[in-house]
Amino acid sequence: MRLQEEIVDELLNAERTQRPAAPLTERFPELNVKDAYQIQLEMIERKKAKGSKVIGKKVGLTSVAMQQILGVDEPDYGHLLDEMKMADNEIVKISEFISPKVEAEIGFILEKDIAGPNVTYIDVLMATKYVVPTIEIIDSRIADWNIKLVDTVADNGSSARVVVGNKFSTVEGLDLRSLGMALHKNEELVATGSGAAVLGHPAQAVAWLANKLYEFGIHLRAGELILPGALSAAVAISPGDKISAHFGPLGKVSVILS
């Protein structure tokens, strides 16, 4: 337990100072994924004690390619806090991060609570109030993104910010599997993807999350924003970049980096 508290201290300090920590898995090989989630939960509790509010959750590692890179067979998750939420087209300072990247995702805003176990993607769709275009800014407090599953789970799923678009759409009539996304950096197309890239259907990732949270006595709550995972590979960003993600009928969302 003491080791877990020390790791929380280290990760919070890395976030505050923009000085990354050395990989946890290299220094503490005895840590397992359950330990890592406990570290994440302790970090969130400390932030809540200082006034932060949980506004949702994010799912990561939803592509087979990323799972293979980290040698895992399931996604991971992290928490979204109120201070992470940014408005569409807002200016964000690169200096607030260590080594940031962006991902485009279809955000889910829930109308009803969702509690595992045995949640299906149909349950998720029935509990969804809106879907909304989002850009997640991810950042690793672990040096050089030299991470394994334990590292990123302990580090709150490498989450940093979420930029939320202005258009809110109901799921009726939408085929989220085939919904396309085009990601532009400074007007140049840098990535494309579709909803099927996220466990076959974005709502499937939300269902996985609800069932995973059941193991920790947590459930998804009405009003929360859930990020189910990226539709393409993450893209590195630099000062001066403008990032825009276009989701066809869902609209678009942008962020400016300074």
* Structural class designation: alpha+beta
Spatial separation of the terminal alpha carbons: 40 Å
The CATH C-level name is Alpha Beta
**Succession of helices and strands:** HHHEHEEEEHEHEEEHEEEE
Over all CA atoms, what is the radius of gyration? 17 Å
User: How would a textbook summarize the main sheet?
Assistant: 8 strands, mixed
CATH homologous superfamily heading? Fumarylacetoacetase-like, C-terminal domain
- How many distinct beta strands? 13
- The second-level CATH architecture is Alpha-Beta Complex
- Tell me the domain tally: 1
Name the overall outline. globular
How would you characterize the overall build of this protein?
The protein has 258 residues and is α+β, with helices and mostly antiparallel strands. It has one domain (2-257): Alpha-Beta Complex (Fumarylacetoacetate hydrolase, domain 2), CATH 3.90.850. 27% of the residues lie in helices and 29% in strands. The strands form two sheets. Strands 1, 2, 3, 5, 6, 7, 10 and 11 form an eight-stranded mixed beta sheet that branches. Strands 4-13-12-8-9 form a five-stranded mixed beta sheet, with no helix packed on it. Helix 1 (2-17) crosses helix 3 (33-49) and helix 5 packs across helix 7. The model has no long low-confidence stretch (mean pLDDT 94).
